[in-house]
């Protein structure tokens, strides 16, 4: 497993870099998904479940963290390709950092590439990484008021995964209220309540990912 | 309830501003505590419990958020002084922002002033706010591996509150492993496992806060 260290990009033209990255990945039929959430909302657990469930799809994961390699080790133990990216203290990934990580991974085979962004509900939403899709996770224990406090993340995400639904009996989290608040910010957002532990709701999420991957490969205008 | 908007401070000398702020608060016998954590780890719930439990101590709360006023409303409903601070998109509070918030609050009466920082386990750790103590929360659902991934926050905190211990039966969180990891980064850190819901562990935390407040007022070198 590789561990690389990437600092902030020198270029200021993040959006242009991101767009270029997206076109390059599209040409290779590789769909990159930028996965964002607070620390501890279950990004790695969700990815582990997807890797186990979707064995027919070639999946790779870029794990971005300030320190440690625990997440990449977990992914690699499942037999998927993983690379650990250390952000040198940075609280988010930008397009340049992502491009260097992709280069270090050197992988033209994988169809779905997940970028597990730094655990942070604020800063990652401000930077286009060049991913084809933005997916965020909000876990049940975090509370259904989060769209009110961190609106940009909900606005920028194509999909919201409400994770740890198996914990719903123990927390006062109103799923429909959360969906309503998220849709008020982003009417197009797709919402998937799931439990990666029990598997509840994973089928819908996986079907959506397959559909998006097929669309991406077909090269249609819509992702 | 006031809602003020503060952007990044113009001054670059954050540490000097913070030190000045600390001295001014000390002269007034007011202990400010910078409370930091991920989104949804229970900062407002913990503060609500402290306000209910410590009625003999005058407590004020500055709620820093990117948007919304839900937290300040919750605190005000308990009869405590609260001010909502909007950070204009900023992912943390710095000393200048904190000074302007204190000025807007205009309160020489309160003995304990909590600064509920923006929900973020990364950026707030990088900025001295001028608080007398840094306190962080890690909630059980977030996982016991967080010291490995967000070391600076653990290094900078005088106290670590492990919250939502009532949820321990439902999550694989090893309290002693978490404590060990936190102490490896910061041997002096005080650790308080608590449930603000059931009250478990709150007594120890409250005793510590009273002790720190008394020390602060006595003006000793040690906080």
Search tags:
223 residues, homodimer, alpha/beta, globular, 8 strands, 8 helices
Q: How would you describe the overall organization of this protein?
A:
Two copies of one chain form a homodimer. In chain A, strand 7, helix 7 and strand 8 form a beta-alpha-beta unit. Chain A has an eight-stranded parallel β-sheet, sandwiched between helices. With 223 residues, chain A is of the alpha/beta class. The first copy, chain A, has one domain: Rossmann fold, CATH 3.40.50. The mean pLDDT of chain A is 93. At the A-B interface, helix 5 of A face helix 5 of B.
Query: Order of SSEs of chain A, N→C?
Result: EHEHEHEHEEHHEHEH
Low-confidence stretches of chain A: none
CATH superfamily membership of chain A? P-loop containing nucleotide triphosphate hydrolases
- Gyration radius from CA atoms of chain A, angstroms: 16 Å
| Sheet with the most strands: spatial strand order of chain A | 1-4-3-5-2-6-7-8
Q: What is the CATH architecture descriptor of chain A?
A: 3-Layer(aba) Sandwich
Main beta-sheet annotation of chain A = 8 strands, parallel
Class from secondary-structure proportions of chain A: alpha/beta
Q: What is the CATH C-level name of chain A?
A: Alpha Beta
Measured distance between first and last alpha carbons of chain A: 31 Å
The outline of chain A comes out as globular
Chain pair forming the biggest interface: A-B, 32 and 32 residues
